[in-house]
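Sharing a chain and its predicted structure for anyone who wants a worked example. Both blocks are below, sequence first, tokens second.
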Amino acid sequence: MCHEARDFPGAIKSFTEAARLDPSLYVPQLFLGIDNLELKHAERAIPFLQKAEKLNPADAQAPLMLGRAFAIVGNGNGAGDAYSRVVTMNPRNGDAWLGLGMAYLQQVDHDAQVMTIAYRDSNYTNLRAGELFAEQGKLAEATRAYKVATSLASPLPCSHAGYGIVLLRQNKIVEAKAELDREISVRSGCPLARLGFAALHLLQGDTRNALNELVTIWNADRNFLQESLPLLRDGVTAEQAQKLLDSAKDTKADYTVPAAFTDSLQTGLTSDAPVMASFDNFGGELSPAKRSRATPITAPEKLYLSGQFRKCSESLRSRLHILPDRRLPLLAACAFYTGDYRTAAQAARKLAINVATRQIGMYWKSKADERLATAALTRAGEINPNSRRMHVLRGDIYRQKRKWKDAESEYHKALALDPGSRAGRIGLAISLFEDGNSRDAFAANSDILQRNPEDPEANLLAGEILVQQHEYVDAEPYLKRCRDIPPKLMPRLHALFGKVYAQTGRDHEALSEFKLAITGDDDGTIHYQMGRLYLKAGDKEAAAQAFELSRRLHEQWNANATLAVEQSDTDISRQ
């Protein structure tokens, strides 16, 4: 009765007594976990939910709540494992798929922070940065990251090929070919090099050779082609893609070009939908590879070098739990390239445990978890297509890829379902602001402030919009209502205060604010503004030091890149 009446402390007292009298009872353990969650005591809830699941492993409610508890305490791996057990029991549970996708995103964010802090200058961090920027369509940032990744004495496999594909997307044909040639010359075995050459042929008008390259890739491993073609989407024009599709249809009579191959080209080059080769088996358990008696055994390394990633993965994954560390990178790579992201993530997680292999483990784990998040969220959207939370998440993803109109459309759909959705409203406001529509952004943000005038993030966004419009006096009251803002947003707030004070004749206060903002000065702009204020005050020595620091930071910002998977500072919709 206490639970139904939402008297959670009373319910906990009753269930604690029941569990003491008979520790083998399932219901008391389950509701001790649920009621502690209701009281926001996630850490206390976890052991009760774990015990409940052991007592009744056939009931999905315990792992569903356990996934929620792990997510609250920041344990993305634990949350993902719990939600995976739920979707295995009930593949139609949309809430579990949504939780699973969010758990993977949580882990991606965590790994990004570790890589950028602990391994900032690592080859793997620079390569991953280039890949992520490229996926988001941020080609200038991707170019900077790849320049660092390829400037090293021994670049990691696919550094040159990835850079070559980014250059192709910018129509820099000569430079792209040079990078692809370098990838081949170092004999890294990177499969993206062949894909890059296929795209190169296509951009040069050599459709036939482009088709031959793609058919060769398909015959070796169709999953790799399906999963990798989206890398070329914005580098190939609609006309070039159509010529390739027409050529594939016309040459069916000359040699084997299966219908499925043409379908893969159509989806990979023209559709914005995610392609998941192992999507249908996403929640299943690993199974031993099947091999007929007539099939010869081929070394996994040879399978990898010949582009047969599925066979390579199958030859290793049944022994995942006993594989030595030196074999795990090969399994992670083969599984990832054939679209078996779950196996890739499991191999990478084992690598990340060992200090000696942590960097390569986190690299593959970041890549696999990102794809798994997309797969899980796509499945959640299919099960609950009109979910407000799903529309907000899609909006966040589109916004991260700078597809402003698509993002705005998703946020509008979320608001149509729930006009009071703060996440939908602030996501829309941020998207409009980033798209250059400050007037509508301010209007959308004002709706949030009408409901809660003290909302710190909404006040920060309002202040930033007004500062950008040089309306410094009007911005100040909004910024003053941001004192309870999350710590990670404080440098941004101090920088905005510094601009307001500098433009309203309060130079001393401006300097004080800028000094508090320097931890967020990635490109040197804050130090530059400090230098100008020091000059104005007649302190030439302090000004010279500030300008010098500004120059160094700007050069470093141009030369280096950090992982792009962390949320935007104003992207609070996930929270």
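Comments welcome. Residues 277-281, 283-295, 561-575 have pLDDT under 50 and may be disordered.
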